[in-house]
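Before going further, learn to read the protein records used in this course. The integers have meaning only within a learned vocabulary of local backbone shapes. To see the layout at work, look at the sequence and tokens printed below.
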Amino acid sequence: MGACRYRVLHSTLYVYSDTVSSSYGRAYLTPREFPGQRLLDHEVHIDPVPSDRSVGMDVYGNTTLYFHVTAEHLRLEVTGESVVEVEPAPLPDTSPPWEKARPAMAFDKNGPLAVEFALDLNPPEIIPEVAAYAAESFPPGRPVLEAVAELTTRIYTDFTYKSGSTTVSTRVADVFKARTGVCQDFARLGLACLRSQGLAARYVSGYLATTPPPGKKRLVGADATHAWAAVWLPGGSGGDRWIDFDPTNNKFADERYVTLAWGRDYADVPPLRGIIYTDAKKSTITVSVDVAPLEDDPNA
């Protein structure tokens, strides 16, 4: 299938029980650009209008927006609006034995290399039970993508998707024990499994197309932010590559996946975080996401 173009609307609304006098925010709402994904248009709307805002780039190359709202407010709405074109590269026909896909180098002048993504987190997520679970898919000499595909299927089969069953702070060990979770949990479990074998894996934040292409079934995670993982493959004729895989839907990523940001873990790339100054005792948050396909119009 050729390139697909999408309009992405990602809105977050906070409502407070008392006045907020000052609000500092940091947002990862700008989709990335890389071979296979082009950002054609983008804007972040903030209401109330911030007195200060700036755009920067983090160590992983993600675009991040900082803002400061100084007007007193009872509600804060942040909306990212983007037009993105996705044209995923086909999977390689072959992949090296997984033992040869372990990264060896550390850093260079261009920033972090794959080895950083092979390290465990702090506090650690690689518990003995997770390492043993992963090892079943990684017998000696097995091609790395074959092993990752089987691991993806096993997580999909062995764990139950249950909305609201976890929070952003839920540990991999707790997900492994309960055998339930949501997309971010299954992505993080996949990361811990691959890292337990010495492989480099990164957390990917993004979206799924709301309406599937003709003949394709609807995927879990549409109409919300989604999360998946990517495994690093060493060079060859095409150079080093990252291959995205989605344990929530038991598949490698295709043209329906819009990449927002990536890092070592969810904590590196939350869509929105911040600090407020208020006496409010209660607040609510409402998040809505829509990823709608656009006609192939260069002026869209």
About this structure: The longest strand covers residues 4-27. The two ends are 20 Å apart (CA to CA). The chain has four helices and 16 strands.
